[in-house]
Amino acid sequence: MGLLLPADIPAPPFREIELGSVDIRIYALTLIGGIAIGAWVTMLRWRAGGGDPDLVIEVALWATVFGLIGGRLYHVITSSGQLDGPLSAFAVWEGGLGIWGGIAAGAAAGAIVVRRRGASVARFMDAAAPGILIGQGIGRLGNYFNQELYGEPTDLPWALEVALGFRPFGLETVETYHPVFLYELLWNFGVAALLIWIGWRFRIRAPGLFALYVSLYSLGRIFWEQFRIDPSEEFLGQRLNFFVALVLFLGGLAAFWVIQFRKSDGRKETPPDRAVPRRTGGAKVTPAAKRRTGRG
Questions:
Q1: Cys bridge to 130: 59, 125, 192, 246, which one at CB 3.0-4.6 A?
Q2: In a domain, 137, yes or no
């Protein structure tokens, strides 16, 4: 007997889990899961390079808070026509987080924390790049349960069923669409694996892997933006995010080139985790002083 495959991806049977009088959105759970697993991957990579894994937890907390704020602000600014009123701008549980704003704000907050702890921001960015992609991919599962981030109608075997109440205006009779959320999920996982391999196979100057992350993610975004039909600001007949992705794709490639092929200034690279010594009551004796005084 041959293996029977479903004709399409069925619509999700529910959007939330009821626990007594509390409803927990699956979208929120996927975001939390993506952040946790992404931080875990980053912790493994940072610790393997000699860094303090506790720093990853601190960075993840601050980056998550500011990432959510930045992501929502980007969505509100670029998709104001989708809001039902001023208060809906705060309804994060309904979906609508712009990844560009989230990454920019989260990366800025994380960089401040890393710098204040005396560690290498560039090396931390490279350690975090694959984990960020994995977290983004897991988070896209929330778009499935919210029945959003789908594209044009299609009858391909992997087409996504969309329930009647979530179909676009004018396409109420069309049942299946491109699962754009799935395209991004698979692309993110693939790019994360590629970055890990590149970092293992080649000697990459930091933050070269992060620059590749920005460029390669944006390349995928250029592709799947062509399938999306949800409302969006447009410019020259293209969605605004298409041009953002194009600029970041080229900018990421240029940054990678400059980082890898710039001339060295002769200084040693900052170590992954430069711990600041704690005072114990006495003056700290440096190796040079020991040699001069005979101590050690």
A1: 192
A2: yes
